[in-house]
Write a structure and sequence with these properties.
Shape: globular
Strand content: 15-25%
Radius of gyration: 19 Å
Distance between the termini: 37 Å
Structural class: alpha+beta
């Protein structure tokens, strides 16, 4: 992390400790170059911030569903246990991992945070000491992950390491993410994340009929005839997302879909921390109108 980013993260963290609301107002202004309206929120990100500060804060169900391990219980309770990924192990510390017992391919991740996935395609080539070092480094963020963007739903999650099956693709790349935007228990559209292996993924919105929706910058710039291959069993994603999103005014339900097999990813309550500058202004308003708070 460079010095500028470190100072920015430190400053925002201090502000959250003083006042999550104050930090939210300041970060929102610097992200969007305008003040946030928390009294009468209109855009999606304004409503996400309102929910974050009011509804999500100290909400046991939201905290459970933010936890990448405990959310499995919720998925089962919703009658969707069949879409849970295979679980190889759960550990409270790096030292508890029995590396020799793990399969040749797997994914390790902490149950808090974002983007902290250790992906192993071949255990015989894995630098285990390096993997331990990386996992320990990520663990240091456990008590502070929620601070920069005041994402209060992450606060208090007991840290665990989750080991799951590696979802394999035909071409050997990372699987495509299907992120369904759900408003008051209804999945409206899906954000498809492609080209993840490049380190610079592309994001496109599609509706329930697999029609491109120009809701973000990438979609707006796409050609007139642009599309992506429609995956088998695509319609089932929306059925599962409807079930899993029922209690929440807004949540993004993430899945993987390979060879027609649906695998649950996670529930995301504050995409981009609630500061998504890639959505078009008109999309922010359209989505905001759909969130009833």
């Amino acid at each position: 992390m460079n010095v500028k980013l470190f100072i920015g993260r430190w400053f925002k963290s201090i502000l959250t400790l003083i006042s999550p609301k104050l930090n939210t107002k300041i970060v929102y202004f610097f992200k969007f170059r305008k003040t946030i309206d928390l009294k009468c929120p209109k855009t999606l990100d304004e409503k996400i911030q309102w929910l974050k500060l009011n509804t999500y804060y100290r909400n046991p169900l939201v905290t459970q569903c933010t936890d990448k391990y405990e959310v499995r219980k919720y998925v089962k309770e919703c009658g969707c246990g069949e879409i849970l990924n295979d679980l190889y192990g759960v550990y409270t510390s790096v030292e508890d991992i029995s590396w020799e017992k793990l399969p040749n391919k797997f994914v390790l991740k902490w149950n808090f945070g974002c983007g902290q996935n250790l992906i192993c395609f071949d255990k015989s080539k894995l630098d285990i000491e390096g993997a331990k070092k990386k996992l320990r480094k990520w663990y240091k963020e456990h008590h502070t992950f929620y601070l920069p963007y005041s994402e209060m739903q992450y606060k208090g999650i007991p840290p665990r390491i989750v080991c799951e099956r590696l979802i394999e693709t035909v071409d050997g790349d990372l699987p495509i993410d299907y992120k369904l935007y759900c408003f008051n228990g209804v999945a409206d559209c899906v954000l498809v994340c492609t080209n993840r292996q490049s380190g610079h993924p592309d994001y496109y919105f599609f509706d329930r009929g697999w029609k491109l929706k120009r809701y973000n910058r990438k979609g707006k710039e796409a050609s007139v005839d642009f599309t992506l291959p429609r995956p088998d069993n695509f319609e089932k994603l929306f059925e599962y997302a409807d079930k899993l999103s029922k209690p929440f005014p807004f949540v993004r339900v993430d899945f993987y879909l390979e060879k027609g097999e649906i695998t649950f990813g996670e529930l995301t309550f504050t995409p981009c921390g609630g500061f998504d500058v890639n959505r078009l202004p008109e999309t922010q308003l359209k989505f905001g109108e759909m969130v009833k708070i």
